[in-house]
Design a protein that fits this description.
By secondary structure, the chain is of the alpha+beta class. It contains 4 helices and 5 strands, in the order E-E-H-H-E-E-H-E-H.
Amino acid sequence: MVFKGVYATFEGGILEFHFDEKARIAGVEIKGYGTEKEKDGLKSQMGIKKGDTFDEQKLEHAKTALKTALEGQGYYGSVVKARLVGVLNMEDESGMDEKLLALPIDKIDPTHSYVKDIDDLSKHTLDKIKHFFETYKDLEPNKWVKVKGFENKESTIKVLEKAIKAYQG
């Protein structure tokens, strides 16, 4: 009987058995995506499952299949039409930094259809945005942020136009 990946050597009166070990996939877990049925469909498209022999070719196929599936559903590398509502002016270790605030157009997500300008957002929402940007670099050495404040949609459009001109050279 012959086994693939198993062989024996006999040297100096010692019999050694050798096994070519192959990595196996311990499990495939998808978090934060759809129902269990949808997750199973995605796993099926990826073509890998628990117990499969692992190799680079299978991994590349799974990555490509996953990317293709998520792109088709608008989840990967997507461009979403949005409307500007305001700008958060900041300063960091590199100088002045403006963060444009935008929401998806109503056709994509009508949840915040009432928000047309920064003043339409609640103080609590603005405080949460401000807090995020005040703290998002806290764990990076030699980096800091100072939040200057919010400005309205009209100011935001001017910031965007200036950035477009600078980009175009």
